[in-house]
Amino acid sequence: MELWVLGSNGTYPTAGRPTAGYLLSHAGTRVWIDAGSGTFDGLSRLMDPADVDALIISHMHVDHCADVFPLYHYLRFGPSVRPPLPLIVPEGAVDRIAAFVDSGGGSHLHDVFDPTTPASEPVEIGSMTFRFGVADHPLPTLQMRVDAQGRALAYSADTGRGSNLAALAGGANTLLAEASFQGLDKPAPHHLTAAEAGVIAREAGVERLILTHLMPTLDPQQSIAEAAAEFHGDVMAAAPGLEVLI
After folding, report:
1. Which listed site, 38, 102, 124, 232, has its alpha carbon 20 to 30 Å from 74?
2. What is the distance between the alpha carbons of residues 114 and 241, in angstroms, rounded to a whole number?
3. Do residues 219 and 183 make contact, with C-beta atoms less than 8 angstroms apart?
4. How do the domains of the chain map onto residue ranges?
5. Domain 2-245: CATH superfamily, name plus number
6. How far is CA 51 from CA 6, 7, 31, in A?
7. Sheet holding 21-26, edge to edge
8. Which residue(s) pair with 124 in the sheet?
């Protein structure tokens, strides 16, 4: 599998740095995971957005979902014609998206997307198998694990320590984990510090930890150092343009 980081800022974008968004590819299947502010542009630089095989939105906070709306308009009014795009979202998200795209004549959401909310069963998208967990976050939020040909990536989405992320990520090659804060300063309990992300990576027994969703004011090297104090595998910080072979 190949992972491209489209955006990695937490909460709000800054110049050249969109919020959360990732493109995962394997054997010709390409899945867009989270569509944070500014990530549609990054995706467009890699491929025609109409050729993506599915979009997964972890939750309906703006920094993870805002660019579902440019995609909606591109698929509805742009030059490419395709069947409705598979859209995997948490409980309640479909109605929120539909209400936002209703221009007064009713929503055309289902003309553009084929939305589902995953249950406990694995979801097959092309050559990749997705399994979902529940994050520790104030609104419904999907964590996920992706397996393909013996390789695995786990993604925390936004979460506190109350989720079962270590079990979901157990033995994965790479854990992509939010690290919103540094040190002991944790103003929001439903997020992780870099050190907490390191602890989860150690508990899960992964090979590599990629820190993401850092607040824009933080020094990524400090976050890497704090995570590395808890986890002795490979540690890096996500940034737009980063490409990683899983």
Report:
1. 124
2. 29
3. no
4. 2-245
5. Ribonuclease Z/Hydroxyacylglutathione hydrolase-like (3.60.15.10)
6. 16, 20, 10
7. 113-116, 85-88, 54-56, 29-35, 21-26, 2-7, 243-245
8. 129
